Amino acid sequence: MSLRLQLIFFLLLLYGLLAALLVQVRTSSPLLFVAGEVALLASLVLAWTLYRGLLRPIRLIEAGTAALQAQDFSLKFLPVGQPALDRLVVVYNQMLDALRQERLSQHEQGVLLERLVQASPAGILLLDFNEHIAEANAAAALALGQPAAALVGQSVAALPAPWGAALATLAAGQLHTLRLPNGHTYRAAAAHFFDRGFQRRFVVLEELTQELQAQEKITYERLIRLMAHEVNNSIGAVNSLLGSLRYYTPQLAADDQADFGQALEVSITRNTQLADFVAGYARLVRLPPPAPHPLDLHQLLRDLGHLLAAQSGAHNIQWHWQLTNTT
Q1: Cα distance between residue 212 and residue 218, in whole Å
Q2: Per-residue pLDDT tens over the stretch 129-148
Q3: 223-266, pLDDT tens digit by residue?
Q4: Residue 213's pLDDT is what?
Q5: CA-CA distances (angstroms) from residue 229 to 58, 62, 110, 156, 282?
């Protein structure tokens, strides 16, 4: 039974007893009966006023409770003129403002985090409490070779090799590098965050393919430049010595002079070719920046057609030109 019904029942019982007592004195003391009737009516008016005053806080509390249960933080109460109740209204309105601002802030942060996760170039896997994938962004779906919707609900350990075994045992703060059969290289890192007081794990997949290729390119460029420098220095000295040996040709027997000179020429030529070959690699790794210039694309296509005409004819391939007239 609610407090309102209890109060109504109490007042009905009280005024029923008072009315019964007045009926008993009606014949014996008419003046006391009239005075009692007047007092009873006045007390009824006073009781009704008190009843409304007492029910107002109860109604406010019920309305506030219903608003909180419905998570409607936009409902506010106005002061009613009672100091104690007005203080309660002020505190309630301040609490609603704080709750509404906190919920708005959490919603904005959640939207921002979701957009950052989806736009991140690194793959991100959010796991639930049972180590199943709860969310995967586009980069993670690309790395794992499956649509993001298909990844949701899968166990990490059930992912195809080499992902499953590596990610299932990856501890927080640990890094693990994986090289896939297609030549791509990824670095996986795991960490934890708290959700409703419990730890949840997430995994970040960072592709290292381009970075490793760039490092390998720099390493090869340095190696080629070093080899070209050493080869050119050695071949220069060797060719100089071979050229000096030509002065000893007249000192040899007439039959050996031709063979000796030819051997020197072949050695110098081979050394020069080797130096040019290595220098070509050195020039390759020091390509200048591109210099754009106007180009007639139609003429380029016609030249390619003439160049490949013999091969095209051998395979019964015909060229059909539909070029826009630029004149």
Answers
A1: 10
A2: 888 888 888 888 888 888 88
A3: 777 777 777 778 777 778 777 877 777 777 777 777 777 777 88
A4: 66
A5: 94, 90, 58, 52, 9
122-207 is classed in which CATH architecture?
A: 2-Layer Sandwich (3.30)
Question: Model's pTM, two decimal places?
Answer: 0.45
Distances (CA, A) of 313 to 88, 181, 306, 317: 95, 40, 11, 6
pLDDT band for position 309 (cuts 50, 70, 90): confident
Q: What gap in Å lies between CA 122 and CA 187, rounded to an integer?
A: 10
DSSP assignment letter at 247: G
Let me know: does 37 contact 22? Beta carbons within 8 Å.
Answer: yes
CB neighbour list of residue 171: distance below 8 Å, 6 or more residues apart: 190
3-state secondary structure of 281: helix
What single-letter amino acid sits at 124? Answer: I
- The residue extents of the domains of the chain are 3-102, 122-207, 212-284
* Distance, CA of 214 to CA of 208 (rounded, Å): 10
Alpha carbon distance 113, 107 (integer Å): 10
- Which residue has tokens 């072949």? 266
How many angstroms separate the Cα of 263 from the Cα of each of 243, 245, 300? 11, 11, 47
